[in-house]
UniProtKB/TrEMBL annotation, chain A:
<dbReference type="InterPro" id="IPR028082">
    <property type="entry name" value="Peripla_BP_I"/>
</dbReference>
<dbReference type="InterPro" id="IPR051010">
    <property type="entry name" value="BCAA_transport"/>
</dbReference>
<feature type="domain" description="Leucine-binding protein">
    <location>
        <begin position="38"/>
        <end position="383"/>
    </location>
</feature>
<protein>
    <submittedName>
        <fullName>Amino acid/amide ABC transporter substrate-binding protein, HAAT family</fullName>
    </submittedName>
</protein>
<comment type="similarity">
    <text>Belongs to the leucine-binding protein family.</text>
</comment>
<keyword id="KW-0732">Signal</keyword>
<dbReference type="InterPro" id="IPR028081">
    <property type="entry name" value="Leu-bd"/>
</dbReference>
UniProtKB/TrEMBL annotation, chain B:
<comment type="similarity">
    <text>Belongs to the binding-protein-dependent transport system permease family. LivHM subfamily.</text>
</comment>
<dbReference type="Pfam" id="PF02653">
    <property type="entry name" value="BPD_transp_2"/>
</dbReference>
<dbReference type="InterPro" id="IPR001851">
    <property type="entry name" value="ABC_transp_permease"/>
</dbReference>
<feature type="transmembrane region" description="Helical">
    <location>
        <begin position="60"/>
        <end position="80"/>
    </location>
</feature>
<feature type="transmembrane region" description="Helical">
    <location>
        <begin position="92"/>
        <end position="110"/>
    </location>
</feature>
<protein>
    <submittedName>
        <fullName>High-affinity branched-chain amino acid transpor t system permease protein BraD</fullName>
    </submittedName>
</protein>
<keyword id="KW-1133">Transmembrane helix</keyword>
UniProtKB/TrEMBL annotation, chain C:
<keyword id="KW-0813">Transport</keyword>
<keyword id="KW-0067">ATP-binding</keyword>
<dbReference type="GO" id="GO:0005524">
    <property type="term" value="F:ATP binding"/>
</dbReference>
<comment type="similarity">
    <text>Belongs to the ABC transporter superfamily.</text>
</comment>
<dbReference type="InterPro" id="IPR017871">
    <property type="entry name" value="ABC_transporter-like_CS"/>
</dbReference>
<dbReference type="InterPro" id="IPR027417">
    <property type="entry name" value="P-loop_NTPase"/>
</dbReference>
<dbReference type="InterPro" id="IPR003439">
    <property type="entry name" value="ABC_transporter-like_ATP-bd"/>
</dbReference>
Length: 416, 293, 230
């Protein structure tokens, strides 16, 4: 009886302390973790166009990271009470904004992960800045996250438009062909990609002989006007660079094959492509296509080991977004472990300038200047069907792009 | 010159899809006064059905081209009997909302089972080559689509203008009450006409599978343009919907080819045309003002 | 043949017919006269089964048809000549004529129709709405004759017609009557009405105000014309 009373009293104290301390970062003393636990928030597209390349399987990847972290530190872990909150932002900036606020304020989320779609990603960066809470973006491509919209609490983890353009544009120009025709969807992402590609191609000694902004969204689903134009340009382009994504990319590739452009000497390079895109188009439709990948599951034994574990849990092979979500969650937990607190400012201090090595981050470094997480990237080429030895093993890596070259130098626009 | 011919040809191919979809919408609207928002979803089901038949049962394209329109037509008839029928006496808004909700349900059901990622579908091998037109060559499959769609439109036109069924459908479309007063059970024709319209959408879907991304949302984008096509042609005007379908396909293709320096123009050209037509002829190019009740 | 008992009809809240009872015997031609808005057209629509808001009973040949759908009433021998003539723009003249099924024992053949109306024959492949107003009126009458309808419901068949055509409509109705066809006629033209009809009902504010025979109408023509506002 006495013992029960004692426990109850102690609990009451803990609740009271937690209640007082929960209000802000000024909590001190023995209270290292707000609410005595860590909550990771995965905010992404769970039903729309990006739900398969990331979506719910990224939640699974984050859960893997938690399990791995807990297994590694055992009872030395800063806490064993680590949970995941998840929400669907439907790729809408306003939804992303309100869901992010809800996560930080009411769900006690310490770190928001993923957030594809650049406009939504930028909104969440604003929320993170205002709430002084951490945010690792994985799914969005815009370089503004580490440019004019950068802030102290936001990190850009996996890739960006510069990485894609630089990797594919530069290497393809050097190794495959100098003359390019660029087709891009005419909205912020596509325009940004087109500029980045043109810059990278020109810098590598190539020429953009033509470029067209296709309507976005392309309601007719037809790109034949542009595909017919390409082989008739003078000089004839060696490469068609398409910046379309998702279903539009599928349309472009289907019609590229219909008009047999590869037979007419026009190769295909894709701005942004995920493993899931190759799966839905089949490698046969894309054989020979080059693109830049942030990570590939069958690149080496280490990746493969992760991919096997992921497949057991999620039933499919991981895209780079899945691996990056795993890595981001893991590195955050490591940083909290090292700092001994989940206080955002302390964790940021520990992260800045840190060099990291894990299954996703090779030669990784978290830049202090702009919070860009740099790592090796890969120029990949889709295999011909005959070389596909097992399901999902669709590409070969032509070249590893070293971390130092893969990303742009810190931008002067970014003032943390 | 060959560039122009190619762009024109492509415009007609895109137009063929618009025409098939708009034709179905027009007969349904004419007979039921229902704006079938779910038309795009049935187009999607046509394409998806073709994919599922091929990947899970090995049923080839040619069989799918028969199975899907018939199957979806029957589904459409069941749907008309089960729900749409019950709302036709109320404000048309009810059926618009019903079919809108139905669209979301159908999309999500497909999403639940097959995900959002596009599913692969190959061009049937018989049609995978290209046809040489002298000045340029053109994918055989596109030639096939254009020919098939034109043939189908001509067949529908023949049935509507040369048969008793067609006469009854035209009469019931124009003045349902009057037609009942002349001893014709208009209600009996409503269900098959609805099924027929849905079947056309399914057929367009199967035709689209080899050349478009097959995913749960493929109909959602397209249907917006098809609505514009129907409005341009004149709501319920069968000839108007077909003519406007091919016309809009051409306008889009030419816009993309020759106005590519003005992407905003080529992007919105359909709606600019629609606005212009509505200002000039509020009932659409081939539409008539509704007769007083 | 036709018996209407305590018929009331509504447009939303507004009541346009109030407990109307009337009878038309087989082979009779009966007119409904009354001011605009008296409910004459509504009465015909109720008989045809096209007016949803109604109360009371409609009997045809002693059979209660109040709940019967319009197309089934037509098949019992009702022929509808609507006030707007009911021409289909999307149907040719021939199609306009052949659209309704034949419903009576004595239908006109298409040949007979074209013999009687040469103007329709020359325009037989044109859209019906391309015909003149008079021709469209002839088309509407020809259509119900071709059906072989036993009871014609004619809504102002002479409206807007030239005197010559009015004469022709009169001849047609008289000939139909000779063949045993019954006619319920909405008519404002009293002179025409007394020329073809056997009896008349005066409708006022949705009620049957008076039942009159031809001689009574003739003797009170002035008063009636003034009342009708003509």
């Amino acid at each position: 009886m006495r013992r029960t009373m004692g426990v109850a009293a102690a609990s009451a104290v803990v609740v009271l302390v937690a209640g007082c301390g929960g209000g802000g970062p000024q909590s001190s003393g023995d209270q290292k973790l707000t609410g005595d636990k860590i909550v990771l928030g995965v905010l992404n597209d769970q039903s729309g166009a990006y739900s398969e390349l990331s979506g719910k399987n990224s939640v699974a990847a984050v859960e893997m990271a938690i399990a791995d972290f807990t297994a590694k530190y055992g009872d030395k872990a800063v806490t064993t009470d680590i949970t995941v909150e998840t929400a669907d932002h439907q790729n809408k900036p306003d939804v992303a904004n309100s869901k992010a606020q809800e996560m930080y304020d009411r769900k006690g989320v310490d770190l928001i992960l993923d957030v594809p779609t650049s406009s939504a990603a930028l909104k969440v960066a604003d929320v993170a800045k205002e709430k002084k809470k951490l945010y690792f973006n994985i799914g969005a491509a815009t370089t503004d996250l580490t440019g004019k919209s950068c802030n102290k609490y936001t990190f850009h983890y996996a890739y960006d438009t510069y990485m894609l353009a630089n990797g594919t544009g530069k290497t393809t120009t050097e190794q495959i062909g100098k003359n390019w025709y660029i087709l891009y969807p005419n909205y912020a992402f596509g325009q940004d990609m087109e500029k980045s590609f043109s810059t990278a191609i020109t810098a590598a000694g190539g020429t953009v002989v033509g470029k067209d902004g296709a309507p976005f969204p392309n309601t007719s689903g037809d790109f034949s006007t542009f595909l017919l134009k390409a082989p008739n340009l003078n000089p004839k382009p060696d490469v068609l660079g398409t910046m379309q994504a998702g279903a539009e990319l599928v349309n472009v590739v289907k019609q590229y094959n219909e008009f047999k452009l590869r037979d007419k000497g026009v190769g295909l390079a894709v701005g942004l492509m995920f493993l899931t895109d190759i799966h839905s188009l089949t490698p046969a439709a894309l054989a020979g296509t080059t693109y830049t990948d942030a990570w590939y599951w069958n690149f080496d034994a280490k990746n493969r080991e992760f991919a096997d574990r992921f497949q057991q849990k999620a039933g499919t092979r991981p895209t780079f977004a899945h691996a990056a979500n795993y890595s981001a969650a893991l590195q955050y937990l490591e940083a909290v472990q090292a700092a001994g607190t989940d206080d955002a400012d302390a964790v940021v201090k520990g992260l800045e300038g840190k060099t990291v090595e894990d299954v996703f981050l090779r030669n990784g470094k978290i830049r202090a200047e702009d919070h860009r997480v740099v790592h090796d990237a890969y120029l990949a080429q889709v295999k011909p069907q005959s070389e596909v030895a097992e399901p999902w093993d669709y590409v070969k890596v032509l070249k590893t792009i070293p971390a130092a070259e893969a990303f742009r130098a810190p931008s002067a626009d970014c003032k943390l | 010159m060959s560039g122009f011919a190619q762009n024109t040809f492509n415009g007609l191919v895109s137009g063929a899809f618009y025409a098939l979809l708009a034709l179905g919408l027009a007969v349904i609207f004419g007979m039921l006064r229902v704006v079938n928002f779910a038309h795009g979803a049935f187009y999607m089901l046509g394409a998806f059905g073709a994919y599922v038949l091929l990947s899970e049962a090995g049923v080839p394209f040619w069989a799918a081209l028969v199975i899907m329109p018939v199957g979806l037509g029957l589904l459409g008839m069941a749907l008309e009997r089960a729900v749409i029928h019950r709302l036709t006496k109320l404000d048309p808004l009810y059926n618009f909302l019903l079919t809108f909700g139905l669209t979301l349900i159908l999309q999500d059901l497909v999403k639940l089972r097959y995900g959002v990622q596009s599913s692969p579908y190959e061009t049937p091998s018989l049609l995978s080559g290209s046809v040489d037109f002298g000045l340029f060559d053109f994918p055989t499959y596109r030639v096939f689509i254009l020919g098939f769609a034109v043939l189908l439109c001509v067949a529908v036109w023949w049935v509507l203008t040369r048969t008793r069924i067609g006469m009854v459908v035209r009469a019931a479309t124009e003045r349902p009450d009057l037609t009942r007063a002349f001893g014709i059970d208009v209600g009996r024709w409503v269900t098959p006409v609805f099924g027929f319209g849905i079947g056309l959408a399914g057929l367009a879907g199967v035709l689209a599978a080899p050349m478009r991304a097959v995913n749960p949302l493929m109909g959602a984008d397209l249907i917006i343009v098809v609505f514009a096509v129907v409005v341009i042609g004149g709501l319920g005007s069968i000839f108007g919907s077909v003519a406007a379908g091919f016309g809009i396909g051409l306008v889009q293709a030419w816009g993309e080819a020759y106005l590519s320096n003005f992407p905003l123009v080529s992007q919105t050209i359909v709606f600019v045309v629609m606005a212009g037509v509505l200002l000039w002829r509020p009932a659409g190019l081939f539409g008539r003002e509704e007769a007083p009740a | 043949m036709l018996r209407i008992e305590n018929l009331s009809a509504f447009y939303g809240e507004a009541q346009v017919l109030r407990d109307v009872s009337l009878e038309v015997s087989a082979g009779e031609v009966v007119t409904l006269v009354g001011r605009n808005g008296a409910g004459k057209s509504t009465l015909l629509r109720c008989v045809m089964g096209l007016h949803p808001g109604q109360r009371g009973t409609v009997e045809l040949d002693g059979r209660d048809i109040t709940r019967l759908a319009a197309h089934k009433r037509a098949r019992l021998g009702l022929g509808w000549v609507p006030d707007d003539r009911g021409s289909y723009a999307t149907l040719t003249v021939t199609e306009n004529l052949t659209l309704p099924p034949t419903v009576g024992p004595d239908p006109w053949s298409l040949e007979r129709v074209y013999e009687a109306f040469p103007a329709l024959y020359t325009r037989r492949d044109s859209a019906a709405t391309m015909l003149s107003g008079g021709e469209q009126q002839m088309l509407a009458l020809a259509r119900v004759l071709r059906m072989g309808a036993r009871l014609l419901l004619c809504d102002e068949p002479t409206e807007g017609l030239s005197p010559l055509l009015v004469q022709q409509v009169g001849d047609l109705l008289r000939e139909a009557k000779r063949h045993g066809v019954t006619v319920l006629l909405v008519e404002q033209n009293l002179h025409f009405a007394t020329g073809v009809a056997d009896r008349h009902y005066l409708l006022a504010e949705g009620r049957v105000a008076e039942a009159m025979d031809n001689s009574e109408v003739r003797s009170r023509e002035r008063e009636l014309l003034a009342y009708l506002g003509i």
